[in-house]
Amino acid sequence: MLQCIKGFKHFGASLQREIIALFSEYVVAAIEDASNSWGLSISFLSIILLPIVGNATKYAGAIIFAFKNKLDITLDVALESAAQIAMFVVEKQCLLI
């Protein structure tokens, strides 16, 4: 019985990898199509625009929590965003050095 469960875990992980790969291909194709139709570079869309749009719900949630005086959640979102930006800047500085 235990072997069956272990095999199922591996099947589940394999299925998850396949689903993530499929979604990744879809995102890449969508970015390429948007780049062609909007006349923007793929780098701009993937480095600048995609993270902003992806985090928009998090920012909206932070604003709602701020209005409800739940500052611990609001500060958490702000610090996570600052850390994300800092990691991007550090990576680019390491490439420039």
Automatic annotation (TrEMBL):
Membrane-spanning residues: none
Membrane topology reported for the UniProt record: Multi-pass membrane protein
MF GO annotations: calcium:monoatomic cation antiporter activity
Compartments, as annotated in UniProt: Endomembrane system
Pfam families: Na_Ca_ex
Cellular component GO terms, alphabetical: endomembrane system; membrane
Keyword terms: Antiport, Ion transport, Membrane, Transmembrane, Transmembrane helix, Transport
Domain Sodium/calcium exchanger membrane region: 19-89
Protein name per the record: Vacuolar cation/proton exchanger 3-like
Annotated source species: Juglans regia
Record lineage: Eukaryota, Viridiplantae, Streptophyta, Embryophyta, Tracheophyta
